[in-house]
Request: fold
Amino acid sequence: MGHAARQEKSSRSGIGRMLKEQKSRLYIIRRCVAMLLCHRD
Reply:
């Protein structure tokens, strides 16, 4: 039972890490799009 609880905790932190990575990726993509639009004008 202890092992299962530990696994749940690690998966929860993994989800948080994934969300953080997605946020940074979205931010980078947004920056790239903004730059492209600025250069196009």
Q: What stands out?
A: The mean pLDDT is 83. The CA atoms of residues 26 and 32 lie 10 Å apart. The longest helix spans residues 2-40. Helices lie at 2-40.
